[in-house]
């Protein structure tokens, strides 16, 4: 089936893009850390620099996920599950298996979506808010803390064995999408990602390596 690219006059506003899924997929692609179950020992202070060192050098891999979304306009929650795949340096796939099959592939500056037998292709340059989010997360892949802090205020807690990371966007473009991103993990493995969106929606995603 031939993918389609929306012309400029028909492009949806950024707020209607699949931002919840996209934001979480980007974050998880940057911080999968598969196969690193043992927490490294740190003699010094556990801080942002220490966490960035642990999370840097991600070789890519696969994780399973279960995501619970709370939609501000709905009474109740939505749950989805599936698999995330990250292939360095910039290919990220999210394959949702339930409640309905859906695939999202981010490669370079292109986002491809497939659902219900239909596919669409979006150019990220047409959505500057999303592009800013992607650039900031990809900076983490390169271990570029300075670039990350241009977009977020970072706060780290806990220890290498059980850490937390809060990201508060101080970039006005990003603040139109998300208010806060909170993560938790052990060593180089991220076990939970919570996102509070600017529109009041929120979500929580639990992540684990295949076979666990």
TrEMBL record:
The keyword Transferase applies. InterPro entries: LolA/LolB/LppX, OM_lipoprot_carrier_LolA-like. CDD domains: LolA. This is Acyltransferase. It comes from the Bacteria. Keywords: Acyltransferase, Signal, Transferase. GO terms for molecular function: acyltransferase activity. It comes from Pseudothauera lacus. Pfam families: LolA_3 (PF19574).
């Amino acid at each position: 089936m031939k993918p389609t690219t929306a012309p400029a006059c028909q492009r949806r506003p950024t707020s209607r893009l699949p931002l919840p899924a996209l934001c979480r997929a980007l974050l998880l692609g940057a911080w999968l850390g598969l196969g690193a179950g043992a927490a490294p020992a740190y003699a010094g202070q556990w801080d942002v620099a220490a966490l960035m060192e642990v999370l840097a050098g991600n070789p890519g891999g696969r994780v399973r996920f279960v995501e619970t979304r709370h939609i501000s306009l709905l009474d109740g929650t939505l749950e989805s599950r599936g698999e995330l795949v990250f292939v360095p340096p910039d290919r990220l796939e999210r394959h949702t298996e339930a409640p309905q099959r859906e695939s999202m592939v981010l490669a370079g500056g292109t986002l491809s979506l497939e659902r219900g037998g239909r596919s669409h292709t979006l150019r990220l340059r047409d959505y500057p808010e999303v592009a800013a989010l992607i650039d900031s997360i990809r900076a983490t892949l390169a271990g570029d803390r300075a670039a990350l802090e241009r977009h977020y205020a970072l706060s780290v807690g806990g220890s290498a064995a059980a850490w937390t990371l809060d990201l508060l966007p101080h970039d006005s473009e990003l603040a139109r999408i998300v208010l806060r991103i909170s993560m938790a993990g052990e060593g180089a493995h991220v076990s939970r990602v919570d996102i509070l969106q600017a529109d009041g929606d929120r979500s929580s995603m639990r992540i684990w390596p295949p076979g666990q």
